[in-house]
Amino acid sequence: MHRRSTRKLLSDAIQLLLHHHLKPRKSIEECKQIHAKLIRSNQTPLQIHIFNILLNFYSQCNDLCSARRVFDQMPHKNVVSWTSLISSYALHGFLRTSVALFTEMLESTVKPNTHTFSFMIHECTTSCLSVLGIQIHCLVIKFGFEKDEFLGSALVDFYLKVWNNMDEAFRVFDGLWRRDRVTWNVLISGLADVSDVGEVLRLFREMRVADELRPNDYTLTSLLKCCSLIIEVDQIHGLAMKYGMESDVVVGSGLVDMYGKCGKLDTGRKVFDSMEVKDIFSWSSIIASYVRNGSPEQAVTLFLHMCRQGVKPDQHVLSSVLRACAEAGNLESGIQVHAQMIKNAYQADCFVGSALMSIYANAKELGSVEKLFRRIENKDIVAWNCILMCYAQKEELATFYSISLFRELCQTSTVRPDMATLVALIASCQSVLDLAVGIQIHGLIMKRRVGCETSIGNAVIIMYSNCGSIIDAYKAFDDIVNKDEISWSSIIGSHLQNGFELEAVNICKEMLAEGIYLTSFSLPLCIAASAKLAAIDLGKQFHSFFVKLGLEGDTFVGSSIVDMYAKCGNVEASQKAFKELQEPNVVSFNTMISGFARQGNAAKAIELYGEMEKMGIVPNGVTFLALLSGCSHMGLVENSLAFFNIMCQKYNIEPEPEHFACLVDVLGRAGRLEEAYCIIENDGSVLAWKTLLSACRNYENTKLAEKCATKVMQLDPTDHSSYVLLSNLYSREGKWKEASKLRQKLVNVGGKKNLGSSWLM
Q1: Ordered domains of the chain (ranges, CATH)
Q2: Closest to 226 (Cα-Cα) out of 201, 259, 251, 260
Q3: Kindly report the CA angle at 146 between 142 and 149, in degrees rounded to 5?
Q4: Which residues of the chain are modeled with pLDDT < 50?
């Protein structure tokens, strides 16, 4: 009697441990202690249900060796014993062992039940084992379980997901004795992935009418999966309100996600706010909606609000908000999200780490990018491509770092380069010095027989263009089988970049003859070529394309038209094109201001600058360069000084050499040489010193000219202009000896005066 009560007490203790789900390490220790006591306390063999409890416990504690040992020691095994061990091996990734055990079970005296078959069908569905699934279906029929609704649900799911066979799924479904809500949900959910919304809604009506079943949250979310139109989402929203499930966390999250995908952000936000309980998927849906619809700042604000409410972010939320930070160009917010990553132990997650790398890469924080990459544990090809593209954007040694990382990638055993890898690799070749490496990479591309792929071919064109090899760029263009608009734009841009404007226009005509229409990418290139050729008639033709294609709202293309007319000397047409811009930005204003300055109309340029400030458009360095240039041509000294001070003090813009040169030029024209010298004494560039030297020659200020020439010779010893200008100044004053020494010095450093040339010849 005492032994029987002890056995029952120990058995109950094991069940209690299973019920409370103790930590694995503690549980496995207690399980082994109880197992030992059971063995010591019994004079008779343990009952089968106690063996099954131990078997199940060891499986839950991930100790498959002990579970198998218990199974092998069992004198008698029932269907629960076999099913428990089969499921344990499968759930831990040992599917082959699981199938072998199932086969062994069929050969034993114990026959599988509906739970055994259901589990095996589920594993076949998860692992896409199509043939094995059909074989098990045959066994289901053999054992007479084909009409069981529990097993039928698993078979319906199998035929829809593995075989994409709706006829067989319906045949199984129609043959069931009873169809409960779970079975209907499996069918509706499966069809939502492979069929249209009309068929799914028909089944939904049949579920309610034929079997009089009320839908649940899983039913409505399945309906939402197949929606593609906003009217369909609205209908399901109405059903959710009818059944009182609008505020349900699952249905509400699905509605928020679908409204975001359909662009109805306000409606999605109302649904989100009405939800009493919000889980991580709800927050992820609303944050992703704001990012998807171009409101990254709102997405970041929502993320911070979520964190304040104590909701722990997952990798999906973190990746969405990091994308928002990248689009907003907000490095500070990205750093805050990075802190949340570390706090929630996602710093080694590949998915989140790749998104964060993009933010630091955009901020030119390549050291941080490298650290993030090295901390990612299981790097996929996306992470490798991301770091390669970051290295490709380096200003110095981009090719060296990219090649080194590519070699490291090729030495890994788990990841293989793809086309995006080759695109990132070839993007690192950015100048003539990288041409040799670029040719080798192109050779690797041809070896892999992917040179005819559109994306790779486009990257090769750009590489050869950056390296100054226009002939190779055109060969790469010819190799592309399916040329897209980017291919044509790239080859047109390549010719324009390398000074072949006429050839660029001819290729544009060839593109139109092939039936490829001009777009907002290719049209500005053609307009720019017309501007460089000063071919205003050709520019007018492209202007007509601009109107015909309905691109009036494209400020970028409109600005190129303004620039074209200005460079062709037709300021009136340029001004008219500028006024037709719907939303002028800083680029379009700069273009028009430069046009006025180029024509010597500084007053109009200054007036336009005033309009720009009134509209709240912040000027940049190009704006002030155009203003300084216009003031310089007109001799407006005080205006030049005022604009220079505004640029530096009000807008904190660091002056470039061109800004100094323009300011020195206007001061030099006015004879204020000493003032100009004081401005550039510490910050002047070669261009500024040469400009001041020229002014000193005009005013015959030999003393200051000597200082300027000395500075130019220090910065650029091979430049001939400083020697010639100072020598001429010496000759004009009769200082023949000094002039002779200076010309001899020019010969010694290897400098010589450049020959004149004419654009018309």
Answers
A1: 655-752 (1.25.40.10)
A2: 201
A3: 150
A4: 1, 16-26, 43-44, 759-761
Of the candidates 711, 640, 702, the residue with the CA atom closest to the CA atom of residue 669: 640
Q: How far is CA 449 from CA 108, 484, 693, in A?
A: 55, 19, 58
- Buried b / exposed e over 165-186, threshold 16 CB at 10 Å, is bbebbbebbeebeebeeebbbb
Q: By the 8 A CB rule, do 324 and 296 touch?
A: yes
Task: Report the interhelical angle of 398-411 vs 381-392 (nearest 10°).
Answer: 160
**At 35, which helix (H) or strand (E)?**
helix 24-41
Distance of CA 602 to the CA centre of its chain: 44
Return the residue matching tokens 């908000």. Answer: 321
> Which candidate, 669, 670, 644, places its Cα nearest to that of 655?
644
**Nearest residue to 366 via CA among 338, 398, 334, 340:** 398
pLDDT at 4: 55
Query: 681 in helix, strand or coil?
Result: coil
Which contacts qualify for 538-542: CB closer than 8 Å, 24 or more apart? 538/505, 539/564, 539/565, 539/568, 542/518
Nearest to 701 by CA among 737, 675, 663: 675
Residue by residue, DSSP assigns 390-405 as HHHT-SSSHHHHHHHH
> Which residue's entry shows tokens 């428990």?
84
User: Can you give the pLDDT at residue 21?
Assistant: 40
Contact 663, 687 (CB under 8 A): no
Rounded distance between C-alpha atoms, residue 417 and residue 415, angstroms: 7
Q: At what angle do helices 79-91 and 114-126 cross, to 10 degrees?
A: 10
Specify the pLDDT at position 43: 44
**Do 306 and 286 contact (CB within 8 A), yes or no?**
no
Residue 450 · residue 416 · CB < 8 Å: no
Residue (of 709, 707, 720, 727) closest to 748 by Cα position: 720
Please report where in the chains the tokens 């490095």 appear, as a residue.
Answer: 331
If phi > 0 it is left, if psi is from -120 to 50 it is alpha, else beta; for residue 51 that is alpha
List % helix, strand, coil for the chain (3-state, nearest 5). Answer: 75, 0, 25
Helix (H, G, I), strand (E, B) or coil at 598: helix
Rounded Cα distance, 334 and 697, in Å = 55
DSSP H stretches of helix in 376-500: 381-392, 398-411, 419-426, 435-447, 454-466, 470-479, 485-497
* Residue 153, both tokens: 């649900």
Give residue 760's pLDDT. 43
Q: How far apart are CA 286 and CA 304, in angstroms?
A: 13
Half-sphere exposure of 233 (CA within 13 A, CB side): 23
Q: How far is CA 472 from the centre of its chain?
A: 30
Rounded-to-10 torsion of CA 721, 722, 725, 726: -160
Where do the H-state alpha helices sit in 514-585? 522-533, 536-548, 555-567, 571-579
Taking phi first (over 0 means left), then psi (-120 to 50 degrees means alpha), and beta for anything else, what does residue 735 get?
beta
**Spatial separation of the C-alpha atoms in residues 144 and 151, rounded to whole Å:** 11
Query: The tokens 């989100």 sit on which residue?
Result: 272
Contact 368, 338 (CB under 8 A): no
Length of the chain: 761
Does residue 217 contact residue 250 with C-beta atoms inside 8 Å? yes
Sign of the alpha-carbon torsion through 701, 704, 709, 715: negative
pLDDT digits (tens, 9 = 90+) for 27-78: 677 677 767 766 665 544 557 877 888 888 888 888 888 889 889 888 889 9
Tokens of 423: 């695109």
- pLDDT score, position 320: 92
Element counts in the chain: helices (H) and strands (E) = 44, 0
d(CA 640, CA 393): 36
